[in-house]
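Retro notes, item 3 of 5
We never archived the inputs for the adenosine-5'-diphosphate complex last cycle. Fixing that now. Sequence and ligand:
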Amino acid sequence: MAEEEKTKEKEPEAPKNTNAASKTEKSDDDIVIEFEKVSKIYQGKIKAAVDISFKIYMGEFISLVGPSGAGKSTLIRLLTCEEKPSTGRIFVAGRDVTQLRPKELPFYRRKVGVIFQDFKLLPKKTVFENIAFALEVADVPNSQISHDVPKMIEMVGLTKRARAMTEELSGGEKQRVSIARALVHQPKLLIADEPTGNLDPVTTWEIIELLFKINQQGTIVLLATHDKEVVDTLQRRVILMKDGKIVSDQEKGKYLL
Ligand code: ADP
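Structure as it came back at the time:
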């Protein structure tokens, strides 16, 4: 009971609409991502995505909801180009990313940050090393790594833990590291795939607040979640999927299943 009260106290007001998402009129100039009649059929019969069309605009914070098996992960994998659609086109910043050549994919993926429920960190490496690694594999010079990584660590509020092994961190701290790592290439889009699935309610809100801060600094956030309370409090756009289709897309949506 005491824990429940603490959780309630901690819940934030719906964040103020100070970014582009607050605009009531959307301009075609602000389209960053567009799915155009996208379908994904597995093994010739499993319809994971069916004729999906939608646009994502600059500055948006979008929740992606739907029951298990609805097609949310498929949609995310299409967006990160881990999967190609069976039919349809996906434009990101005006480019059809379904046509990217294999050697272009690493560059594209740096512009799409992804965080996961299970963090996917290197446990025997420090916070600093985990984030630096994402830059090292992209051949970023050491001087830039020494400059950029502490800034990212500060942004996610982990300066005091920079030299700790990630296996020693709490779940919330681990998710902060993975957020810093996902943002280190300054992506246009951050995909958060059930980022609070392993976190307690208080930590959940701390992470959601951090995602808001990132959104307000100009990064689109696409949050796939089962957390009804989070979605309802956000009062932002909600895309609901069922059976591979978008069955509702609401500006200030609620978690309706
Ligand atoms: P969600 O993320 O909403 O739970 P998924 O995108 O994982 O949904 O799955 C949508 C449908 O596609 C499900 O029926 C699932 O079993 C199927 N599916 C997903 N990935 C594959 C795959 N690689 N091969 C075959 N079927 C798949």
